[in-house]
Amino acid sequence: MPATAAFEGQPLPRHVAIIMDGNGRWAEQRGKFRVSGHKAGVKSVRAAVSFGYRLGLDALTLFAFSSENWRRPEDEVSALMSLFIAVLGSEVRKLHRNNIRLRIIGDRSAFAPHLQRKIDDAERLTASNTGFTLNIAANYGGRWDITQAARGLAEQVARGELAPAEITESLLNEHIQLADSTPVDLLIRTGGEQRISNFLLWQLAYAEFYFTPVLWPDFGEDAFSDAIAAFVGRERRFGCTGAQIREQLAQKTDA
Questions:
Q1: Which of 58, 69, 129, 222 is catalytic?
Q2: Which of 19, 125, 164, 196 could form a disulfide with 189 if both were Cys (CB 3.0 to 4.6 A apart)?
Q3: Element of type H or E holding 226
Q4: In what side-by-side order are the strands of the sheet with 15-19?
Q5: What is the pTM of this model?
Q6: 35 neighbors 83 (Cβ within 8 angstroms)
Q7: What is the rounded average pLDDT of the residues 67-88?
Q8: Mean pLDDT calculated for residue range 236-245
Q9: Is 21 a residue of the active site?
Q10: Biggest alpha carbon–alpha carbon distance for the chain
């Protein structure tokens, strides 16, 4: 049973976005190939989805593959694509059984046709689920997102369907990815870097940012709850700890 989105009367975030950074460094520190870090990161994705669901989030958005990641070594990109396909195949039915909706955001045109079909199938299977939305950003960039939205409005103007003076922030927002989702309240970036790397530029306008040195494969429930506790303290000037967040979740799960 998901928790209600409050901690002792203080609102918790409804939509959390995470830049999952540090897979490669995690592997290198252990003398392994970088792809081993990406595989290890899958368990952290499972843990984050489980924790977000129990926390009562409306949505969790994970930055899996940016439009700049194509510049990485060819063998690493190929391994990432293979892992993406494998995870889609192994995880989507689990998501469906738990009433979780899966949505992939980004430019799919660069993906191989069989991967595009798997994405379409996964989204169709889970489209009617209402418990929680998991957004995976793949071949996504914030500048691309804003550009494609502006292009869509420009095409309407060219067809005579829209006057330039009618373009507003609200109208542009309707063409941005995640337009039908609750606003992002909290951005978490793992791995120690303190930048947003072209992720959700429009959607993060009013979000709180939380940066942690924890590498993504090591980002578990404790680290996630610490981020939530920081949000609660920062947003409402109400101090709490990650342990308190976990305790409340345990109580609600047992209820």
A1: 69
A2: 19
A3: helix 221-236
A4: 100-105, 132-140, 59-66, 15-19, 186-189, 208-211
A5: 0.87
A6: yes
A7: 83
A8: 64
A9: yes
A10: 60
